[in-house]
Each structure stands twice: as C-alpha cells, then as structure tokens.
Amino acid sequence: MPKISVIIPAYNIEDHLAQAIESVLSQTFSNVELIVVDDGSVDATFSIAKNYEAKDSRVRAYSFPNAGAATARNRGIEKLDYKTDFVMFLDADDYLEPDALAVLFETLAQNPGAVAAYGIVVQFEDGTEPKLEDITRTFGYYRPQIAGWRMVSLPHDSPTTFSTMIIWDYICTPGQLLMRKSALDQVGSFDPEIAVSEDWDFMIRLATRGPLIYVRKHLLNKRELPNSYSRNNKLLGRAEPKIRKKFARSCYYSKAEKKKAVLGHLYSCFVKFGWVLDDLKERQYGRALRDFYQVLKSVGNFVIIQIGNLKYYR
Predict the structure, then answer these.
(1) Are residues 114 and 179 in the same domain?
(2) Are strands 177-180 and 116-125 parallel, antiparallel or unpaired?
(3) Whole-number pLDDT of residue 195
(4) How much is the pLDDT for 130?
C-alpha cells in the first residue's frame, strides 16, 4: 500500500498541536507516518509530540533550535522515510477532515500526470467551529490564468497550473495539498530567505513540474490566530517582491516561464484592484483604502522590479 508522510512544523503551539496530530492519526487512509518538527519551542509543544511518539509508532518527533517554518519543514523532509510516496506539510494550528488523505490520494491515483492535489480550506476564528457555508467564497475558488497575453477565468473543474500560480498564491496553506514525493525531490526545499510566503515560492516551483488538481471538497480547517502570518498584510506585501526578483534571476526557469512571470506580476495588480471593488461592494471602506494602497505599491514594485530584471529575460 502506498505511504503518505505528513510533516508538522511546530512552534509554541501547545494549545492546538494535539488536535493537528489527532487529525492525522485518525485518517481513513491508514498507512501514514507523522513527523513533528519542534522549532525551538519554550512551552510544552515538544513534550506533547513526544507523548504521541511513545503511544503510536507512526509518530516521530524531533526538536531543533528555532529557525523558522521553512527550515523546520526542510528538517522534516530530511527525516522522511525513504519508502514514502506522498508528502503533506500541515501547520500545527490546523487540522484535517477525516477523509482528507484518502480523497487526495485517490485523486492523484486517477490523475497520474498531476504532481499534487488539494482541497478546500475552511478558515475559522480560534474559539469557534469551522463551517463551510458557501463554496464560492472559499479561498482560491475563483482562479485566473494567463492564456496568451490575456488573463482569463479558470473553469472550476480545471487543475491549477503555473499560469495561475505565477499571478498569485491560490493555495491557502500547504496543509490542504498532497504532493508526490517524486515531485518534491525535483522541486527541492523551502527557501528560508523568503519569510512568510516561502510556501508560495515553493508552489510556483511545484507548478512548473505539472498540474495541481483542485478538489472541490472541504478537507482542511485553518485556524486564524491573532498573530497568524496570514493576517499580517505588511509582511505578505514585503515578501512578494522578493519572490518576483528571485524568479526572474533564477536559472531554474525557462525563458517562456520568465516571460509569463512578467504578465503574472502585471495581472496581480488587477487582481488586487478587484479586492478593492469587493471591499466597496461590502461597504468596507477602511479595508478598501488599505487594499488600494497595496495596489499602488504593487504597480510601483512592478515597474521597479521589471526594469531591474530586464537583463535576466534576454
């Protein structure tokens, strides 16, 4: 039977780690190994992980000095069982639906040309219960793609490709996605130099290896904590230029992919302007101003970055 490895990077998350671990161990897909990488926590995080390791042979727990989520994930990759076939990176404050791994595994079995499959994330406030009320309002349901020189809407039953991921990160969190180990071997590790959005950089590289199948089923619950990176728009805004610059200056990508990346960068400005319009429709005027400021920054970054990167596209 194929084997799935789930890697959980954990840092000072004693209140929620057990729920994340239990959600993996109680999956309907049973051939699972769970690797918990404690990133230098000062609370009971590592003790909780070790307790599960003592009770269940499928669990392995490791502790290292604090170095950030990207490095913790990379350390988990180094500890993978050489026999594993599929890999997932689950955040320690999130938890899976019971059939998540089975659904994603079956999807990949039916789509041998795909490098990964991912499902729907339900985001919820800490202290509340997750509830899927409207699939059309979930993150990544509406996805654009680059077709020629245009940005067009992607049909909901179509896979996500590089033509979408280079516009914006339409994968909410790595925990909603199961990838083939062979694809991970080709893509390599997470980049610790890109804080906050290192997963977007990773997903762009993954999408160059093949399509990511979108499964319209609720498979992951993402807890929003007050200090969540996903809430820090300032940090996210700082990360995007780093990713764009890295992409243009890397020898990893073809000229065709780099030219498409220029269009992706440009069209990301239009995507953000769409956020402003949505804010106005909902009468969220303060949020609309903040999002419009992000649009102006994006346009400025586009001009500066693309002029600076002209020599890399030749």
Answers:
(1) yes
(2) antiparallel
(3) 76
(4) 87
**Considering 231, 262, 294, which residue would you say is the last residue of a domain?**
231
Contact 80, 64 (CB under 8 A): no
CB contact at 8 A, 196 and 169: no
The answer on 147 and 259 residing in a single domain is no
Look up the domain containing 88 and give its range: 4-231
Q: State the pLDDT at residue 234.
A: 54
Please give the C-alpha separations between residue 35 and each of 203, 244, 258, in angstroms, as whole numbers: 21, 31, 35
- Please tell me the distance from the alpha carbon of residue 169 to that of residue 166, in angstroms, as a whole number: 7
**CA atoms of 30 and 27, how far apart (whole Å):** 6
Q: Which residues of the chain have pLDDT under 50?
A: 231-232
**Region of 276 on the Ramachandran plot (φ > 0 left; ψ -120 to 50 alpha; else beta):** alpha
pLDDT of residue 134: 86
